[in-house]
Structure formats: structure tokens, C-alpha cells
């Protein structure tokens, strides 16, 4: 049986939500309705530093950069359904946690909406664990849709990152594959990753404030291949506010990846990324690979 913990190992006896200061009026559809004493992680963490204003106009960059494929960085949510007034999907999870959550990812598809159709088809992020330890699939994870990414500031001059209609457009260097860029972005944003945060002291303490079990909020995805199934830890659900300074940080993260790749070739990884947690499964009792 799972137990909600406060972070110091003790069980939360009384949820603090009733005593928390309300931020939004009663009936508001927003997720962050109350103020709780939790310091939310920011994408990129405290180590994220700004690039110089001439980063992409300097000789060090312009002489070495050769444009490659155009990709998109998107932010997405799910759970809004005109036929079901209940909060389901990632929206329901955000309301439960009183936090801003979005799926942030990279796609090479010309129309990012096709990526939303794929995620809805597989019910991306639907798999979780009940309070008694059984695997279950939550509702609402078949309604993924894009949300606008609206930074407050423009990218740097001559930046290979631009603000699109709903996404960030990124012109990769010719020798940086989209998959490698995706994994580097994941690494830089890992401090704001939902699944990892739920296992941290801050995550357990926050869940203790609300009287809920951290494990029941974790997200996984099931992929089906003929008679086999693959369980994958859902690694791209983050604490992210796409219409706040988090969007500016996302632009900066993308710029840092490209600038570092072009101007510091000696620091490039010598081997390709590893894809973890994607072994074949007949059930969900054994740990992910």
C-alpha cells in the first residue's frame, strides 16, 4: 500500500489545502488555484546562463554554422473535452497537483498537429499506478492538442530559433540530428521533469500537503506492436508555463544547444544517445529497462 509522505518520511496526517491561500476564484478552470509552500522547478534550472547578444552574429558562429533540417519544439496538453466536464488527462493531473504541467517535445513533422494525433492514438502518458499498487490507464490522454508558446522576448539576432505560429521553429546545424537535439533538450530540462520530481523530497512534501500519493501521479505510455507491448516511462511532461518566462527559457535552451554544438565541437558526445525504458513487456510488474 502506498503512503503519501511529507518528504521527511512521515505520513501527512492533514492536507494543507484547506488552509492555503486561494489564487483563483471559485469555479475557475485554471489549474493553480491555491498557493502552497512549494518552490516549483524552472526549465533549465539555476545553471542556465544567457548567451552574449552577438552569439549568432559572431565569426565563431557564422563561419562554422551550416543550416540543416528545420524542426519544431511544441508544448501540448490534454484533458479538455466538451462532452465530459470532469478534469481528465494532463489537465486533471495539473489541477490535482495545483501546478502548471505541459508535454514539451520536438518533432520533425511539417505539421506538428500530426504529432498530436499520434500521441492521442497511443494515449501518451495515460499509464499510472493506483493507490493499491496496480497499473491502470487514466482517461483523457487521447485528446492531445498544441498550446501556444509565447515568449516575452525575441530570440537573439540571427538566431536559428524563431517563434512560429504555435511552436518554436529551430534550424538545426547540418551535423546535429533531430534525435540528438531532442535528447540534449531533455537533459537540460530534466530538473523540471514530472516523474523525477515526484520522487524528490520536494515532490513528496508537496503531495503530502495535498494528501495524495506521488506514485499515482507518475506517467508512463504503452506502445503496442502486434502481440507485444512496450512500456515506456513518459519522459517529456514538465513543469512548464508556455505563456510565461518559461517560454523565454525554452528559447534560450534551444539557442544554447545549437551555439555550443557549433562553437565547441570538442565537447560533442562521441557516441549516440541511449534510449532507456523501452524494453518489450508482457506485463507491467518488472521494472523498466
Architecture overview:
- The structure is a single chain.
- With 289 residues, the chain is of the alpha+beta class.
- A hairpin with a 2-residue loop joins strand 10 and strand 11 (228-233).
- The protein has helices at 59-62, 89-97, 113-121, 178-189, 194-198, 201-210, 245-263, and strands at residues 21-22, 34-35, 67-77, 101-107, 127-129, 135-137, 145-147, 161-163, 168-173, 220-225, 228-233, 237-239, 280-281.
- The protein contains seven helices and 13 strands.
- The longest helix has 19 residues, at 245-263.
- Strands 3, 4, 7, 8, 9 and 12 form a six-stranded antiparallel β-sheet that branches. A three-stranded antiparallel β-sheet has the order 10-11-13, with no helix packed on it. Strands 1-2 form a two-stranded antiparallel ribbon.
- Helix 4 (178-189) crosses helix 7.
- Residues 1-14 and 277-284 have low confidence and may be disordered.
- The chain has one domain.
- The protein is globular and about 55 Å long.
- Helix content is 24%, strand content 20%.
- Tell me the number of strands: 13
* Whole-number total of structural domains: 1
Q: Termini distance?
A: 24 Å
Question: Strand fraction band?
Answer: 15-25%
Mean pLDDT: 84
Helices, by number, come to: 7
What value does the Rg take, in angstroms?
20 Å
The outline comes out as globular
Estimate percent helicity.
10-25%
Structural class: alpha+beta
Could you list the spans in which at least 5 consecutive residues all have pLDDT below 50?
1-14, 277-284
Describe the sheet with the most strands.
6 strands, antiparallel
Order of helices and strands: EEHEHEHEEEEEHHHEEEHE
Amino acid at each position: 500500500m502506498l503512503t503519501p509522505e511529507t518528504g521527511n518520511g512521515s505520513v501527512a496526517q492533514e492536507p494543507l489545502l484547506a488552509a492555503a491561500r486561494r489564487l483563483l476564484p471559485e469555479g475557475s478552470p485554471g489549474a493553480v488555484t491555491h498557493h502552497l509552500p512549494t518552490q516549483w522547478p524552472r526549465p533549465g534550472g539555476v545553471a542556465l546562463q544567457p548567451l552574449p547578444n552577438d552569439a549568432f552574429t559572431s565569426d565563431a558562429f557564422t563561419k562554422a554554422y551550416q543550416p540543416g533540417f528545420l524542426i519544431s519544439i511544441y508544448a501540448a496538453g490534454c484533458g479538455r473535452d466538451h462532452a465530459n466536464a470532469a478534469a481528465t488527462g494532463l489537465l486533471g493531473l495539473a489541477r490535482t497537483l495545483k501546478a502548471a504541467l505541459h508535454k514539451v517535445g520536438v518533432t520533425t513533422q511539417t505539421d506538428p498537429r500530426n504529432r498530436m494525433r499520434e500521441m492521442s492514438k497511443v494515449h501518451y502518458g495515460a499509464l499510472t499506478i493506483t493507490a493499491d499498487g496496480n497499473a491502470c490507464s487514466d482517461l483523457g490522454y487521447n485528446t492531445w492538442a498544441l498550446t501556444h508558446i509565447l515568449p516575452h522576448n525575441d530570440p537573439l539576432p540571427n538566431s536559428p530559433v524563431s517563434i512560429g505560429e504555435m511552436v518554436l521553429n529551430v534550424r538545426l546545424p547540418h551535423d546535429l540530428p533531430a534525435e540528438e537535439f531532442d535528447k540534449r533538450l531533455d537533459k537540460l530540462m530534466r530538473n523540471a521533469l514530472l516523474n523525477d520530481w515526484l520522487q524528490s523530497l520536494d515532490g513528496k512534501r508537496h503531495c503530502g500537503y495535498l494528501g495524495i500519493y506521488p506514485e499515482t501521479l507518475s506517467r508512463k505510455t504503452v506502445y503496442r506492436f502486434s502481440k507485444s507491448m512496450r512500456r515506456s516511462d513518459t519522459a517529456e511532461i514538465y513543469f512548464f508555463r508556455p505563456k510565461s518566462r518559461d517560454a523565454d527559457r525554452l528559447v534560450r535552451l534551444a539557442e544554447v544547444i545549437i551555439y555550443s554544438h557549433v562553437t565547441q565541437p570538442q565537447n560533442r558526445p562521441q557516441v549516440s544517445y541511449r534510449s532507456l525504458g523501452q524494453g518489450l513487456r508482457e506485463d507491467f510488474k518488472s521494472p523498466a529497462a
